[in-house]
Input
Amino acid sequence: MPVYLAIIALQVACVIHLVKTGRNQMWLTALIFLPVVGAIAYFVVEVLPGMQGNRHVRTAKANVIAAIDPEREVRAARDALDLADTAANRMRLADALAALGRHDEAIPIYREAIDRTAGDIDPRTQGKLAASLFETGQGAEALALLDTIGSSGTQGERDRMTMLRARALDHLGRKDEALALYEDVVTRLPGEEARCRYAALLIERGWDRKALKVLEEVERRMRHLDRHQRAAEAGMYKWAMDTLRDLRARGVA
Output
């Protein structure tokens, strides 16, 4: 029964789409007399192409492909590099490896890409190398590299570098410097990672009341997210809500 109802729903949706968009009326015959095959064919031929420009559809498609074949972009990047050994193709391969968490493999390729830029070094490339260095435990080298990057780029790019710098300082035990950077960037970066890291460091430093206010803001902002948006950062949101409950249970206000 559920399958039958799904077929009917798809058939009705296709008919409505046909009428609203003024598609060829010959489709109507196929949809009525060949409900399954006709609806699938109509969706593939008439509906799907129009969805390709939708950002959410593209994102969902990319996520499905990444889940099914996570090595796909790495292979494509290696093929491109085999055809043309350029800095851009090395960057593509390094990015693909970093996206899979293979930062130790990405680091030498980022370095090679930077070496090939002949004095015209892109700060974003240096930032990516610094991020991979940090992810492999090389916080001091990551921070030293960040210190060489100028203030060019968009505000968003500068804020992401500030976030990485704060994490490196935190990792190296320079807590007060990290706190100052988190406090500066927390209201500008999208998402809640900066707020959660800021709250965690505040708690570590003994400033529970201030951390409570930060986590209450995370809680408030969460209410505007749907289930899928929260699921993308489920671990972070769970930590935030568990910590908030603990602070409240201890009477922090």
